[in-house]
Write a structure and sequence with these properties.
single chain, 476 residues, alpha/beta, 2 domains, 28% strand
Length: 476
């Protein structure tokens, strides 16, 4: 009889169980390894795609910087005319209307800038620098006429080095002006202290069609009217409050005459129309029979506005409410810091006091402005057909006998001494804290040529980025 060995049977069973567990563990490890490998490969692909995207986006952003810089340095682009001074191509042309940059995605533009007009294709802007590794990066400029106003858009395109990633960047610009395109009164200040003998030649608020201010005559100007057809009166001081003393007067341009000479249109010579910056203006005075206002000796109450001249002085000005900041009103909403930065980049910037000698070369700058961080003293600055904008952070002073042409802006005190003549305007920011003081025979004279020269598009046009217009996107 055979005897069964139960111990050996149990040992064999334990071996089978170990084998089964080992196989299960091996399968699990294999699955984990395969999964980890797939995850690793996926991570590599994601990382590679992210790298290519960043490479393409960086190239697009670099191109956008190029086109944006080009726009900011070529304000004539805003002309937006095919065949004008800028080489625009018409995007309605069937050969280019559906290709970049005339069309990006579903967005179509009216014009595209192309420096090579002779070819059908739209060439990208030429670069001032090149990207390394021959990464594709192109800059374009397009123009769009819309109900919100004409818009220029800078576009940058970029590709990754292997051409598998493509990205776009864009930002839009709108036209703005350096100074207000509207009326600029001879004096804009929050309060004045007029002493001595003070004369204002008022802004008659007229329109004329002559592109050259030298052709303006009393015979070819038209008064500005309101919506009801009423003729708006002359504008002299635009102030918030009063406090003037001494003897002062306001007269119109036609009444500011030199009685010792004969006008080409008959009667006494009309100074503003017929004198230039080479004349001494010594005999010019308001016709005593044709004043708009006259304070009388020692008067501190000013004068009462009339129906014909409602805007000469005071809070009854009918153009608009007195601005919180005369400075920002004149510079079309720009802050002191913004205008200062413009002077540093496009004008003359003097860190300290300045005088006439510091204005040399102002006519050749992008903006005819001089900014002084200290006191400023002027005697012969500016010209009738090349006026200057002078800004002083300290005291702004006009010497006795000064004959200056332009807009003179003081952030603190303003003083004009005897015999000084300003052809243009004086703007003082804060006379509640500081002073607006005149001594002796001071004349503040509105001049067509000064204001039209500074408001001319060639000098006054700027292009500013539109808020929230920046956009980055990729096609793959």
């Amino acid at each position: 009889m055979k005897i069964h060995n139960s111990r050996q049977s149990l040992s064999l069973q334990r071996g089978a169980a170990v084998l089964l567990v080992s196989i299960i563990l091996l399968i699990g490890v294999t699955l984990i390894t395969v999964f980890a490998a797939r995850v690793g490969v996926m991570d590599q692909r994601i990382a590679a795609n992210e790298y290519r995207h960043k490479e393409a986006q960086a190239a697009a952003d670099a191109a956008l910087e190029q086109s944006s810089a080009f726009i900011e340095n070529n304000t004539d682009l805003y002309e937006g005319t095919v065949g004008g001074t800028s080489p625009w191509k018409d995007c309605t042309n069937v050969a280019i209307k559906d290709v970049l940059p005339c069309k990006i995605g579903s967005k179509s533009y009216d014009l595209a800038y192309d420096g090579v007009i002779a070819t059908t294709a739209i060439e990208p802007l030429e670069y001032t620098v090149s990207l390394t590794s021959n990464i594709a990066s192109d800059s374009y400029i397009v123009y769009e006429a819309s109900s919100a106003g004409n818009i220029i858009t800078a576009i940058g395109t970029g590709k990754s080095l292997d051409d598998t990633g493509e990205a776009f960047s864009q930002v839009s610009y709108g036209k703005t002006t350096f100074i207000t395109p509207g009326v600029v009164p001879p004096v804009l200040a929050s309060g004045v202290d007029l002493s001595g003998s003070f004369t204002i030649i008022a802004d008659p608020r007229v329109t004329h069609n002559q592109t050259d201010c030298k052709t303006v005559t009393p015979l070819n100007v038209s008064p500005i009217t309101n919506d009801n057809g009423d003729i708006l009166g002359d504008l002299s001081l635009w102030v918030d409050g009063s406090g003037s003393g001494g003897t002062w007067q306001t007269c119109g341009i036609d009444s500011y005459v030199d009685s010792s000479a004969t006008s080409a249109w008959g009667g006494p010579l009309k100074c503003v129309y017929e004198y230039t910056d080479t004349d001494d203006w010594s005999n010019c005075a308001c016709d005593p029979d044709d004043h708009l206002s006259d304070s009388g000796a020692g008067s501190s109450a000013g004068y009462t506005p009339t129906y014909d001249h409602p805007d000469i002085k005071g809070p009854w000005n009918v153009i608009e409410d007195f601005p919180d900041s005369p400075f920002e009103h004149f510079f079309n909403g720009k802050t002191v810091a913004e205008v200062k930065a413009i002077a540093q980049s496009d004008g003359i910037y003097v860190d300290g006091p300045c005088n006439d000698s510091h204005t040399a070369g102002y006519k050749t700058n992008a903006k005819p402005i001089i900014w002084c961080t200290g006191d400023a003293t002027f005697t012969t600055s500016g010209e009738q057909y090349n006026p200057i904008i002078a800004v002083s952070e300290g005291k702004l002073k006009l010497n006795a006998g000064a004959n200056v042409w332009g807009i003179f802006v003081g952030l603190t005190d303003f003083t004009a001494n005897g015999g000084a003549k300003v052809h243009g305007a004086v703007i003082v920011e804060d006379t509640d804290t500081y002073s607006f003081l005149t001594n002796g025979d001071y004349e503040q004279i509105y001049d067509f040529c000064v204001l039209s020269g500074l408001q001319d598009d060639a000098v006054n046009s700027d292009i500013a980025k539109l808020a929230y217009s920046a956009k980055d996107f990729q096609s793959n």
